[in-house]
């Protein structure tokens, strides 16, 4: 057995309320014992075990937080849409139209290019403190290209999502129903071995409520678990469908009706907010307060994609959430860690309970508040995943 004691932690965020009665479960002057990649004990530095410790690691009074769980990304793609971003910043509005450009580039790319693009993004995410990443397809939109995207995604993470229903590709624009048949038939068949989740972009310019239901049901029948892009661009039926199908998460949810909030509050479905998309499309940020007042579980994720949110950086997302969306610094950190884990229905990550995966970051700061207080500053000094230092 390998055992490592990380000691002299100035502030440890465990997300285990038993430590201090708050959601973040803070321990000041703490230590963390890791055995075989798993948290074996968390407590006061002065009470840390001293026997049979193989390695000892001095955190030098810094804050330690659970690894971020990024529960929503689109990292398998080729091409660049910086010109589209520039045009938006000069006043153009965002629609889902640019997705077609990325589809064209993704189809034309070699597997090695897609693999190395994705690898660069995964490494970038790990370096900013993310230790679990969900990754969607959705820029292939043909049987072979979706299968290829999911095979690549699966080589990086178990949290893979089939998003064949991202938009209707150009060659099916005249007969979109045939595309729904393709997604729910041969495409689903080809990707199922590499996919854990199924997702649909249910919004203006993408898929209708009826199509979304049909597609999610087909995925569920194949053993995939549902999640949905809902109410990003306007109010619609996406949230209702997500709740109806017991989706693990409804994502974006920037336009919610009272009924949506009510439905979510009576469900287990997480609301995942993606402020990188509002930032990058210059759209109004949603206010988290009505969701929290209704006791809805809220996650924060990056939505990393080349069109509407080209960032892997969760500290940046946390800073926006605090400044623009009325998250407290505590709630924002919880949403980017435990919230993400709940959005993936995982109980082994997103926290540092005994038995959790030893995924955490050491900050170049003595409090987690600095994540929002010092925006744009790289505070992620070290990253540990499964008990091993990866940065
Ligand atoms: O989550 N909303 C749909 N899909 C992506 C955007 C994709 C793109 O513009 O390339 C999103 O924001
Ligand atoms: Fe997305």
Provide a descriptive summary of the structure in words.
- There is one protein chain.
- The chain is α/β, with parallel strands linked by helices and 391 residues long.
- It has 2 domains: 104 residues, Roll (Urease, subunit C, domain 1), CATH 2.30.40; 276 residues, Alpha-Beta Barrel (TIM Barrel), CATH 3.20.20.140.
- It is built from 13 helices and 18 strands.
- Strands 1, 2, 3, 4, 5, 16, 17 and 18 form an 8-stranded mixed sheet that branches. Strands 8, 9, 10, 11, 12, 13, 14 and 15 form an 8-stranded parallel sheet that branches.
- Helix 3 runs parallel beside helix 4 and helix 11 packs across helix 12.
- The longest helix is centred in the first third of the chain and has 17 residues.
- The two termini are 23 Å apart.
- The mean pLDDT is 97.
- The structure holds N-(iminomethyl)-L-glutamic acid and fe (iii) ion.
- The site of N-(iminomethyl)-L-glutamic acid has 14 residues, from helix 2.
- The site of N-(iminomethyl)-L-glutamic acid (NIG) has 14 residues, from helix 2.
């Amino acid at each position: 057995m390998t055992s490592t004691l990380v000691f002299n932690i100035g502030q440890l965020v465990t997300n285990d309320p038993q430590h201090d009665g708050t959601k973040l479960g803070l321990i000041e002057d703490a230590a963390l014992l890791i055995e075989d990649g798993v948290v074996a004990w968390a407590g006061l530095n002065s009470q840390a075990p001293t026997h049979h410790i193989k390695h000892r690691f001095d955190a030098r009074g810094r804050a330690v937080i659970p690894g971020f769980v990024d529960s929503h990304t689109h990292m398998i793609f080729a091409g660049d849409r910086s010109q589209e971003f520039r045009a938006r910043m000069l006043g153009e509005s965002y629609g889902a139209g640019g997705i077609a450009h990325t589809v064209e580039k993704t189809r034309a790319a070699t597997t090695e290019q897609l693999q190395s693009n994705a690898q660069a993004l995964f490494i970038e995410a790990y370096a900013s403190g993310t230790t679990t990443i969900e990754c969607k397809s959705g820029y292939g939109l043909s049987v072979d290209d979706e299968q290829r995207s999911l095979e690549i995604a699966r080589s990086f993470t178990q949290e893979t999502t089939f998003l064949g229903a991202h938009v209707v590709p150009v060659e099916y624009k005249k007969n979109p129903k045939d595309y729904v048949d393709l997604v729910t038939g041969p495409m689903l068949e080809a990707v199922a071995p590499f996919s854990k989740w199924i997702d649909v972009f249910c919004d203006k310019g993408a898929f209708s409520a009826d199509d979304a239901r049909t597609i999610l049901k087909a995925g569920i029948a194949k053993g995939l678990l549902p999640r949905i892009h809902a109410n990003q661009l306007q109010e619609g039926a996406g949230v209702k469908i997500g709740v109806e199908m017991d989706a693990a998460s409804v994502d974006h949810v920037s336009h919610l009706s009272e009924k949506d909030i009510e439905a979510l509050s009576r469900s287990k479905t997480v609301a995942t907010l993606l402020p990188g998309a509002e930032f990058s499309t210059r759209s109004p940020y949603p206010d988290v307060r009505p969701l929290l007042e209704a006791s809805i579980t809220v996650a924060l994720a990056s939505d990393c994609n080349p069109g509407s949110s080209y960032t892997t950086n969760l500290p940046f997302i946390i800073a926006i959430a605090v400044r623009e969306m009325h998250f407290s610094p505590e709630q924002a950190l919880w949403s980017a860690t435990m919230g993400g884990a709940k959005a993936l229905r995982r109980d082994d990550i997103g926290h540092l309970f005994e038995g959790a995966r030893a995924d955490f970051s050491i900050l170049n700061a003595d409090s987690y508040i600095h994540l929002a207080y010092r925006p744009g500053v790289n505070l992620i000094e070290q990253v540990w995943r499964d008990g091993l230092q990866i940065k």
